[in-house]
Specification:
Helices cover about 40% and strands about 20% of the residues. It has helices at about 1-15, 40-60, 70-80, 80-85, 100-110, 130-140, 160, 170-185, 210-220, 240-245, 265-270, 275-290, 310-320, 340, 350-370, 435-445, and strands at about 30-35, 65-70, 90-95, 115, 140-145, 145-150, 165-170, 190, 200, 210, 225-230, 255, 295-300, 325-330, 375-385, 390-395, 400-405, 415-420, 425-430. Helix 9 packs parallel to helix 10. The longest helix has 24 residues, at about 350-370. The protein starts with a helix and ends with a helix. The structure holds S-adenosyl-L-homocysteine and iron/sulfur cluster (SF4). The site of iron/sulfur cluster (SF4) has 10 residues, from helix 7.
């Protein structure tokens, strides 16, 4: 979501005359779009700000200026504290107020400005749409935020505090944004939300639409051939959404469904409101609907009070379910969350040891999943030139990067590829001739 937000900040600043640069030395304005989810991400902000202060001072010595803005969830969580910790900062803007950036930049010429409100107006109504050229530069696969915020209050998580209450965007505006993207050449859209499957936005018929309903509508937008969504909560996997995985060819067979732990005791302490058995049953139902679905998850190890037995329950769940791709984290106590107040915090060394044991299982699963593609023919959406001249790169339906020798003219289209080799994170293959692809697809269906 930060990638999407950063693009939208660039969109809102473009009419002001700003263009993006990847080099801070080149910039009149640097916006750090920050993450507060774990301590490490949060700490990084202040070390970056230290470097930017030096750049600003060097600039000033030359009689020039550099404006520094801190956006995102650290801005939201720390607000004025950021200005106290780093005086070089001109502007602090929360994730719900960045549509006000142009106005804030003008104010900041007269002294530091902070906006961490959750405004009543919808920021999306105030964001300029990117030009077709800008959309094309960003590529054929785009993000689109449909839902923001969270009311679930898992006891480890800062999101409900930094992103605010759960809101769904109006489905009609989402459809319009998707059509705008598709007209510029976007072929794949990933719908974003902290609890994206809790989506319930007003639809074209005036009724509240579920995520499944929205996906079904977006699948009919001309030019859109692939749809994905993230991140989902297990308790919001509605029947119609599970069904959609079996019925809509555009909905890709990949699902990121965080479980966090395999221990019921820890899941309860995390306030996840489901058991490990509930998760296993849910996975069974999803797999019954879409047998080839690739699953991905998030795990946290070392939540306060996690015993060896609790951790082994997590290992057991990971082994049993089998994931194609996973994220795993050491528990990071976050200020203001109930988890941070709990006794029985787990020592860092123990968290590291558990993380390594879990990683061993999950990385082996990732490898096995990638290896299982070798010898198969799969559809690839080509997104960009490959690593070497004459190569193009794209993604499999299961979100794996795929490289082939092929013409740049294929970028933006889906073609069948024979997978011949895999590495830890990528697949390598050969384009199947158009005729062969049709035949093979015919066989598969
Ligand atoms: N809304 C999603 C996840 C949002 S945060 C969900 O409900 O699953 C993304 C991931 O960061 C979480 O799934 C969790 O695994 C991890 N995470 C969040 N807070 C954390 C913390 N305090 N310490 C370690 N990992 C954390
Ligand atoms: Fe955080 Fe997700 Fe839990 Fe919400 S549901 S509190 S975003 S982990």
């Amino acid at each position: 979501m930060n990638v999407y937000d950063a693009a939208r900040m660039a969109d809102v600043l473009a009419p002001e005359g700003f263009a993006e640069t990847s080099d801070a030395e080149d910039a009149d304005l640097v916006v750090l779009n920050t993450c507060h989810i774990r301590e490490k991400a949060s700490d990084k902000v202040f070390s970056e700000l230290g470097k930017l202060r030096m750049l600003k001072e060097a600039r000033r010595a030359e009689g020039k200026t550099l404006q520094i803005a801190v956006a995102g969830c650290v801005a939201q969580a720390e607000g004025a504290e950021i200005l106290r910790k780093q005086r070089a900062v001109d502007l602090v803007v929360g994730p719900q107020s960045y549509h006000r950036l142009p106005e804030m930049l003008r104010q900041a010429e007269h002294g530091p400005v902070i906006d961490t409100e959750f405004p009543v107006e919808d920021k999306f109504d105030h964001l300029a749409q990117p030009s077709a050229e800008k959309i094309r530069q960003r590529g054929v696969s785009a993000f689109l935020t449909v839902q923001e915020g969270c009311d679930k209050f898992c006891s480890f998580c800062v999101v409900p505090y930094t992103r605010g209450a759960e809101i769904s965007r109006d489905a009609r505006k989402i459809v319009a944004e998707a059509e705008h993207l598709a007209r510029a050449g976007v072929r794949e859209i990933t719908l974003l939300g902290q609890n994206v499957n809790g989506f319930h936005g007003a639809g074209e018929d005036g009724a509240d639409w579920s995520l499944a309903r929205l996906i079904e509508r977006l699948a009919r937008v001309e030019g859109i051939v692939r749809l994905r969504y993230m991140t989902s909560h297990p308790n919001d996997m509605a029947d119609d959404l599970i069904r959609a995985h079996g019925e809509l060819p555009a909905l890709m067979p990949f699902l990121h469904l965080p479980v966090q732990s395999g221990s019921d005791r820890i899941l309860a302490a995390m306030n996840r409101r489901h058991s490990a058995a509930d998760y296993r049953r849910l996975i069974e139902r999803i797999r019954a609907t879409r047998p080839d679905i690739a699953l991905s998850s998030d795990f946290i190890v070392g939540f306060p009070g996690e015993t060896e037995a609790d951790f082994e329950a997590t290992l057991a769940l990971a082994r049993e379910v089998g994931f194609a791709s996973t994220f795993y984290f050491k528990y990071s106590p976050r200020p203001g969350t109930p988890g941070a107040e709990l006794d029985d915090q787990i020592p860092e060394a123990e968290k590291s040891e558990r993380l390594a044991r879990l990683a061993e299982i999950l990385e082996a699963q990732r490898h096995d999943f990638n290896a299982s593609m070798v010898g198969r023919t799969i559809d690839v959406l080509f997104e960009k030139p490959g690593r070497h001249a004459g190569q193009i790169a794209g993604k499999s339906p299961y979100l794996q990067p795929v490289q082939v020798d092929g013409p740049a003219s294929l970028i933006g289209s889906v073609a069948a590829v024979d997978i011949v080799e895999c590495s830890t994170n990528s697949l390598f293959g050969r384009l199947v001739s158009a005729k062969g692809a049709d035949r093979r697809r015919g066989e598969a269906s």
